[in-house]
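Ticket #4471: structure export looks truncated?
Reporter: QA, pipeline team
Priority: medium

Steps to reproduce: submit the single chain below to the structure queue and open the exported record.
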Amino acid sequence: MVEINKKSLSRLLLAPLVIGLLLASICLHLETGTASPKTQIIENITPKETYTLILKNKDNPDFVILDVRTPGEFANGHIEIALDLDYYSETFKDDLNSLDKNKTYLIYCRSGRRSGKVLDMMKELNFSGVYNMLGGITRWKTEGLSTTK
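Actual output as written to the record:
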């Protein structure tokens, strides 16, 4: 017959309890979304940095350029492949919130004022990656970068 002393018995009983608590803790973190959160990128960048970012993401389907000016402003010239999402639309915040938050967005407007506000909104809505072009399309053109109609 094998003799087990009290010290060995307590270790045998304690080990499964500790393992169970660790597993329960890991499951709780996974369920509540607190396990290794993804880093959010929210940045202001210059038009030249914007141009480089566009070139780097030329074939990236998860990269979206958003022009937040009015349809009339957009029609007068915009960055190629940009989508228009009118900041002044009654449904703007809902439209913005319906976008895929896991994609990377480049946003701009005429001067940078509206897109700066949109950058803050997108941060609050937990978008994972958003770049705001400082100075807007006005600065983009001033720096000799092209637009399309």
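Status: closed, not a bug. The export was complete when the record was re-opened. Leaving a note from the reviewer for reference: The first helix runs from residue 6 to 32.
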